[in-house]
Every structure is written in C-alpha cells, then in structure tokens.
Design goal:
It is built from 6 helices and no strands. It has one domain: Rhomboid-like fold (Up-down Bundle), CATH 1.20.1540.10. By secondary structure, it is mainly alpha-helical.
Length: about 180
C-alpha cells in the first residue's frame, strides 16, 4: 500500500511538472473515447490536497483488505476501480471531469464493512464495525450531493462496487466448518 500511495504522489508530481497534462485522464461522462480513462482516472488527482486527502484512508483500508491475500486484494481493487469508473461514466454530470482514488476508497470501505457479515467471520465483523466507526461519518458526508467539486456519483458507485465485491469474493464455508 505504501508503494501504491507513493505512485499516486509521484503521478501528481508528474502532473504538476507537466502543466497538469495528466488531468485529462479523468473521466468525462458518456463520451465513448473516455472509456479508456476508466482505470487511469483512479490514479490521477487534481492537486496535492486531493491526493493527501485520499492517502491515509487508502493506506489503511487497502492494508486491511490486502490481509485477505494479495490476489484477492488485486481482484477486489480491479472490480471496484472498473465498476466505479463505469458508474461515473454513466451518471456523472455532463462536461465534468472525475478522477481520484476516492471511488476505490469508498469501495474498500463498503467491502470491509460487510464482508465479515457475508462470510460470517467474527474478526471480519469486528473489523467492519471499527472501519464504520472511524470512517462512517465522512463516508456519509461524501455521498451528499450538496458538495460542489466532489463526485458523489463516484463515491456512490465505489461504495456499491465494494458491496458487490464482498459477495463476489466471499470465502465459501462448508457446512460444519468453523470460521475464525
């Protein structure tokens, strides 16, 4: 996760040095040529304050998700990034440009909050409750359509994607098998 966050900071440095040339990799909705930006948009930010705001939650939520295994983590992130990007592409306001890791963050939040319940794992439930206690209020605020300059559509699409990921990537338990 440290490497991932370092990459986001490096990309923002490159963006600033290049006169914000990378900002064009954000998603402009319902423009077919923009579909290629669905994945890169999750790595691009609009300024150092933007990447700073996403760094700590991405570090923590990504780390907690990665404890379930790196291949599983990569698949969960890939699903969230693609589904979130497509959601933004479909429903964001016309002529907007959406980028940043917050859709992934909202997705990881949703995944972590429900996966323990879906898998019936007491430790996962505890982690989900702690994640909800720490980030729940800011997640709800980020879903409010009243904030200008914030893509509540991207946040909502990310959250839904994370909930879907919790079901798609759940560990199956055989009858009689105990879950830690």
């Amino acid at each position: 996760m440290l490497g991932w966050v370092a990459l986001l900071w490096l990309l923002e440095v490159v963006d600033v040095v290049s006169g914000h040339a990378l900002d064009g990799l954000g998603i402009t909705p319902r423009t077919s040529s923009e579909l290629v930006d669905v994945v890169p948009a999750a790595f691009i930010h609009f300024g150092f304050a933007h990447v700073a705001a996403n760094s700590v939650p991405l570090l923590v939520l990504g780390f907690l998700t990665a404890l379930g295994g790196l291949r599983r983590f990569a698949a969960i992130c890939a699903l969230i990034i693609v589904a979130d990007g497509l959601g933004v592409w479909l429903v964001a306001p016309e002529h907007s440009n959406t980028a940043g890791a917050s859709g992934l963050i909202f997705g990881l939040f949703g995944y972590l909050v429900v996966t323990g319940f879906v898998e019936r794992r007491p430790l996962g439930i505890l982690v989900g409750l702690l994640v909800a206690a720490v980030w729940g209020a800011s997640i709800l605020t980020g879903l409010a359509p009243t904030q200008t300059g914030i893509s509540w559509q991207g946040h909502l699409a990310g959250l839904i994607s994370g909930l879907v990921a919790a079901f798609m990537f759940r560990r199956r338990v055989s009858p009689g098998q105990l879950m830690p």
